Amino acid sequence: MKLSFIKNISNNEEYRVTNFKRKTEDTIINIIIPNKKNIYSFLMIILAIVILSSHIKVNAYYNNNNNNNNGNNNNNNFYNILNLNLNNDKLVEQQEQQQEQIKLYSKIKIINTVIESDGVDIVFNNSVSFKNLAYLSVSEYITIPIGLIQIDLYDSKSKKHLEFKRFQIENDTDYTLITTGIFKKQEEQKQEEDNKNNSNNNNSDEDIDDDGSNYSITILSDNFNFPSLKKRTTLRFIHCSADVRVGVDFSLVNAATLFSNVEYIGDRNHMRSKSFGASTNFISIPKSNPYQVFIHETDNEKKQLTLPENLHPIYDSPCTISFLLIGSIDNPKYPLQIFSIIYPLPSIHASQFSEKQHLLSNNYQFNNNNLKQQQQQQQQQQQQQQQPILQQQQQQQKQQQQQQQQQPIQQQPNIPSSTSPSSTTFLKFSIAVLSFVLLALLSVV
After folding, report:
1. pLDDT at residue 119 above 50?
2. What is the rounded distance in angstroms from the CA atom of residue 259 to the CA atom of residue 317?
3. What is the total count of domains within the chain?
C-alpha cells in the first residue's frame, strides 16, 4: 500500500512538472509565434505610440511657431508704430510748410523822394527801421504781414519826427510806399510857423488844410488787371514833386497824352479824393517803337515842366515801369525831372524777392548806400539757415532707407509661420481619420 501511494505521489508530481513545462512552452511559443489577435493588439499599441508621439511633436512645433509669430508680430508692431510716428512727423512738417506758404503776407517796396534832406528813416510798427534812406533810394520788394500797420517818417540826422500814417494792408497785394516832401531846416520852419501864426486870424480853415504838413507817406497798389506780355510794356505815372501843386499831363511828343491831370500824391485834397492804394491806372504800350515823353501843365503843352526824354522799352522779359515826377522848380541840386523805376529789374534774379524776409519779425535795417552788400549778407544768412534744414532732411532720408532695408530681413521668418496653422489642422484631421479606420478594422476582426 505504501509503495502504491508513493508511486501515485511521484506520478502526480511528474504530471505537475510536465504540465508546467507544457504551459511555459505554450506561452513561450505564443509569445514567439503570435496568433492573429496578438498581432492586431501589437499593431494597435505601436500605432497608439506613434499617434501620441506625432501629436506631441505637432503641438510642440505649433507652439514654437506661435511664439515666433508673436515675437515677430511684436517686432512688426513696433516698427509699424515707428513708421506711423515718422509718417505723422512728415505730415506735420508738410502742414507747417504749407502754412508757411499760405501765411498772409504782402510785398512792399520803398521809394524816397524827399528833397533837401541828408536822409530819412522809415519805421514800421515802432519796431523795424529802414535807416538813412537817401534821395531817390529804391528798395526791393519786402514782405509785410497783412492788417493795420503804422509807418513813421524821421529825419536821419536830427531824429525829428516828420510824419506818420496808418494803413490797412490787404492779402496777396504788392504795394509801393513813397515818401514825398521838401525838408526844411529849423530856422526856416520857425519863420514859417511865425508867419502862419500871424496869418491864422485872416485865413480860413480851408487855407490851413491846403498848407498842411510838408511831408507825406503814400502807399500805392502795384496790381493791375491785365496780363504782362513780352511785346508790350506796362507803365504808370506818379506825381511826386511837392513843389508843383497843380495837375500835370504825361504826354508823348507829337502824339497822344498818356496820363492827364495827375495831381500831387501828397496833396491833402488828392488824399481825400483818392482811396487807399489808389494811383493812376496802368497802361500797356507796344515795345517796338521808341518814344519821347515829357510833362506839361494840364491842357497846356506849351508850358513844359520837363524836357522831352527818350523812352526805349526794349526789355526782353515782362516788366513794369513807374515814371515819377520828382525834384523842384529852379533848383539845380534837385532839378525837376522824370525818374523811371523798372520792376523786376532784368539784372536781378527772382530769388532775391524771397517770401522769407519777414519785415516785422526781424530787426532789419536798410541803407541805400550799401544795398548790394546787404543783399549779399541776406543771401548768406538764408543759405546758413537752409543748411541745417537740408542736413536734417538728409538724416531723415538715411533713417528711412535703413528702416526699409531692415524690414524685409525681419519679415523673412514669418514666411513658414503663415502656413503653420493650415498644416497643423491638416495633420490633426488625417490622424483622426486613420484612428477611426483602425478602430473599424479591429471591430471587424
Report:
1. yes
2. 24
3. 2
**Is the pLDDT score of 114 beyond 60?**
yes
Residues 218 and 109 in one domain: yes
| Residues whose CB falls within 8 Å of the CB of residue 216, separated by 6 or more in sequence, listed in order | 163, 179, 180, 181, 242, 265, 266, 271
Tell me which residue range forms the domain holding 231.
225-345
Model pLDDT for residues 362-402, shown as the tens digit of each residue: 333 333 444 444 445 556 655 665 566 566 667 777 777 77
Quote the percentage of the chain above a pLDDT of 70: 45
Q: Checking DSSP bridges between strand 232-239 and strand 320-326, what pairing results, if any?
A: parallel
State whether 219 and 229 are in the same domain.
no
DSSP assignment of 391-430, as one string?
HHHHHHHHHHHHHHHHHHHHHTTHHHHTTHHHHHHHHHHH
Q: Write out the three cell numbers for 184.
A: 526844411
Q: Which amino acid is at 26?
A: D
- Rounded Cα distance, 174 and 146, in Å: 11
Q: Which one of 294, 322, 345 terminates a domain?
A: 345
CATH number at residue 281: 2.60.40
Q: Which of 209, 213, 207, 208 is nearest to 180 (CA)?
A: 213
For 287, the grid coordinates are 515795345
Angle CA 350–356–359, to nearest 5: 105
Question: Which one of 322, 345, 368 terminates a domain?
Answer: 345
State the chain's maximal CA–CA distance in angstroms: 191
pLDDT for 241-272, tens place per residue? 998 988 999 988 888 899 999 999 987 654 44
